[in-house]
UniProtKB/TrEMBL annotation:
Keyword Transmembrane helix: yes
Domain of life, per lineage: Eukaryota
Polar residues: bias regions: 273-299
GO-annotated biological processes: regulation of tube size, open tracheal system; septate junction assembly
InterPro entries assigned: PMP22/EMP/MP20/Claudin
Subcellular location: Membrane
Keywords: Membrane, Transmembrane, Transmembrane helix
Mode of membrane association: Multi-pass membrane protein
Bilayer-crossing regions: 26-52, 108-131, 143-167, 187-208
Protein name: Uncharacterized protein
One GO cellular component, as annotated: membrane
UniProt region (Disordered), positions on chain: 234-320
Amino acid sequence: MSSSVDGASVVSEGPTTRKYRFKTSCLLLTASYVGLFGLITTIISFSSPYWLSSYQYAYSKFVRLGLWNFCFDHYKHPQYQYDETFTGCRWIYSPLYQNIRDWLQPGWFISVQAMMTLSMLMSLFGLMAISIPIMHFCLRYNVVLIIVAFVFETLAALMSFIGWLVFAVMHDSRSWLMYPRQNYLDWAFYLAVLAFFLDSAAAIMFALEARSAYAKRQRFTNLVYNMHPRTPSNGFETIPLKTDRTSEMQRTPQSQSHYGSHSHHHPPSQSGRFQQQEMIGSTHSSPYASISRYSQPQGYRSKSPPQPPPMRQSSTFTAV
């Protein structure tokens, strides 16, 4: 008998034996497979010499090229002073291409190589990070590892996009290969474009999974706190204060009538001691204030400051 509660499957064997097993979500597995396919397509595109090819009916001296290979058919470079032809497919750093390597590798082509290399590495690091929670290691840092995988996949997609976009714009430059109209983008270039979309989809799914895992972690934390509430560390329990407002309401009309009968006199000024006591009383009379149960007696009530005695009005006598 088995059941699933928030990603954790509970397997019961017998009346008392229970096994708790963490269950990987389907979204996380799908994102991992999509990221894996993106890495495979990036590796194939990275290593294949079919980024740019020449039409067969053109009979061009240039045959095809990749990021690291160039293929020629009895090609003779115009700016090369020696009477030497290049035939066959060779690595771009071959000693045979030493004299024309600056022409084969312009600055934008080196940037394409760098972007595709970094894209492949970022995708690899993302899969390495996400493999840890899939194998149920370091479950405490499950959310952090998913976020790390999301960041790596996002960087892989961004760098792949920059790489194939620069190549698509600059491949027909007349300062690079002769007769660019006779060349076309081959299937390895489109694999790089496909890898970009796969990495982007994997990054989006990792973001959704990180959000779901964080919400699930919050639910688990709240459940644990509700089952095992924490006691105050100092051993005291705070209780709200209750203020006696009836005496204040009864005292207010008297003070108003007293000062109202002598409108030509200003109300007597209180001393500094009375003002300080009034400030203290107003602080503790707030309905949101709280004190410790053991810091004040149970029958504590805020007392109003003593009022000064009323001043007598001097009488005037008229001599007859």
